């Protein structure tokens, strides 16, 4: 009932897609023999949607002129390779396997989950915080960029942090984990602004949410159970507290990406707008929301985007491109 009001004519298509089999992407592990892995994925007729989009998205220079470089805020996080099957192709990737270098070849994930990491626009030498890091796909992607001077990966749940550790051990060699100074913690993310304020160049705040697709297919511990009603109603407040903590942990001039895998504007745009107001009023901190229109255009061949978000971008499930839902919004802390 809620989503039919929010999405109108688009809802029947979104609903049937949510109930259908999800599409995956294969994130190539750069710590494996990535060139061989990429060649094998190409043989399956999969394509690297990231580099294809970036290559086609480069502005064409007009005759006799050199193309003006795009604004720095447009830059995607580098070195990420993720293969997907074309629109309408519902082929499945074989399970990932252990490669010759002792780490797994690729990581299967909803390809839309890579968009928040791409949008964060990591630069070499960045100090990075992943505030709600488990189960670990986005943390792994952050490490794949090769940009993290330090990476703090946090998840309040110790069991979920354990899953994150498992992913890092399977995909990232020990010396890289040590060299990148990857620190896995299980602290209360809401307190991060007090613990480590004004420290990070880039922060990913991928908050707990109603996990709409997962909730439709999973009975156990479902957030829509009657017994969890209060918890569900409190989610937007928790999300505001986590995003506020992420922004407070960021240096002035640093960037934050907020993301969820929910369709609900109460958990998406409203949280972003509420948090920006809160920081302005309580901390006198100005936050600027970045326009991601160029980013949507870059990836619209692979994903279906909701055309009318107030702030940020939302990938909506579509039978031809059954990724998402995935909401993400990029912000710059100005002061």
Automatic annotation (TrEMBL):
The lineage of its organism: Eukaryota, Metazoa, Chordata, Craniata, Vertebrata. The gene is NSUN4. Belongs to the class I-like SAM-binding methyltransferase superfamily. RsmB/NOP family. The keyword RNA-binding applies. Residues 30-334 form the SAM-dependent MTase RsmB/NOP-type domain. It comes from Delphinapterus leucas (Beluga whale). It is found in: Mitochondrion. PROSITE patterns: SAM_MT_RSMB_NOP. GO terms for biological process: rRNA methylation. GO terms for cellular component: mitochondrial large ribosomal subunit. SUPFAM superfamilies: S-adenosyl-L-methionine-dependent methyltransferases. Its main location: mitochondrion. PANTHER family: 5-METHYLCYTOSINE RRNA METHYLTRANSFERASE NSUN4, NCL1 YEAST -RELATED NOL1/NOP2/FMU SUN DOMAIN-CONTAINING. It comes from the Eukaryota. This is 5-cytosine rRNA methyltransferase NSUN4. InterPro entries: MeTrfase_RsmB-F_NOP2_cat, MeTrfase_RsmB-F_NOP2_dom, RCMT, SAM-dependent_MTases_sf. Pfam families: Methyltr_RsmB-F. GO terms for molecular function: RNA binding; RNA methyltransferase activity. It catalyses: a cytidine in rRNA + S-adenosyl-L-methionine = a 5-methylcytidine in rRNA + S-adenosyl-L-homocysteine + H(+); a cytidine in mRNA + S-adenosyl-L-methionine = a 5-methylcytidine in mRNA + S-adenosyl-L-homocysteine + H(+). The active site is at residue 261. S-adenosyl-L-methionine binds at residues 132-138, 155, 188, 206. Keywords: Methyltransferase, Mitochondrion, RNA-binding, rRNA processing, S-adenosyl-L-methionine, Transferase, Transit peptide.
């Amino acid at each position: 009932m809620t989503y039919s009001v929010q999405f109108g004519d688009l809802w029947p298509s979104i609903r049937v897609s949510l109930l259908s089999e999800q599409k995956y992407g294969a994130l190539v592990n750069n710590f494996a023999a990535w060139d061989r892995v990429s060649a094998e994925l190409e043989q399956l007729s999969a394509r690297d949607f990231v580099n294809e989009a970036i290559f086609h998205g480069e502005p064409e220079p007009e005759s006799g002129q050199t193309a003006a470089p795009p604004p720095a805020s447009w830059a995607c996080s580098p070195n990420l390779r993720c293969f997907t099957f074309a629109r309408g192709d519902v082929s499945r990737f074989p399970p990932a396997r252990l490669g010759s270098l002792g780490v797994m070849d690729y990581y299967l994930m909803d390809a839309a989950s890579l968009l928040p990491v791409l949008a964060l626009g990591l630069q070499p030498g960045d100090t990075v915080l992943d505030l709600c890091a488990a189960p670990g796909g986005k943390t792994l992607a952050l490490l794949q960029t090769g940009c993290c001077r330090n990476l703090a990966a946090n998840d309040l749940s110790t069991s979920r942090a354990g899953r994150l550790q498992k992913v890092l051990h399977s995909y990232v060699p020990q010396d890289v984990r040590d060299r990148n100074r990857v620190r896995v913690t299980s602290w209360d993310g809401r307190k991060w602004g007090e613990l480590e304020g004004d420290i990070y160049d880039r922060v990913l705040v991928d908050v707990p949410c109603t996990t709409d697709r997962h909730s439709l297919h999973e009975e156990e511990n479902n957030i829509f159970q009657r017994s969890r009603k209060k918890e569900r109603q409190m989610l937007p407040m928790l999300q505001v507290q986590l995003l506020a903590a992420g922004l407070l942990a960021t240096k002035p001039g640093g960037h934050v990406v907020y993301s969820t895998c929910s369709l609900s504007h109460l958990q998406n745009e409203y949280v972003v707008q509420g948090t920006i107001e809160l920081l302005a009023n309580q901390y006198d901190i100005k936050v600027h929301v970045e326009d991601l229109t160029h980013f949507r255009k870059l990836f619209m061949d692979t994903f279906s985007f909701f055309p009318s978000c107030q702030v940020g971008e939302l990938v909506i499930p579509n039978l031809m491109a059954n990724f998402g839902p995935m909401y993400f919004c990029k912000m710059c802390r100005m002061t």
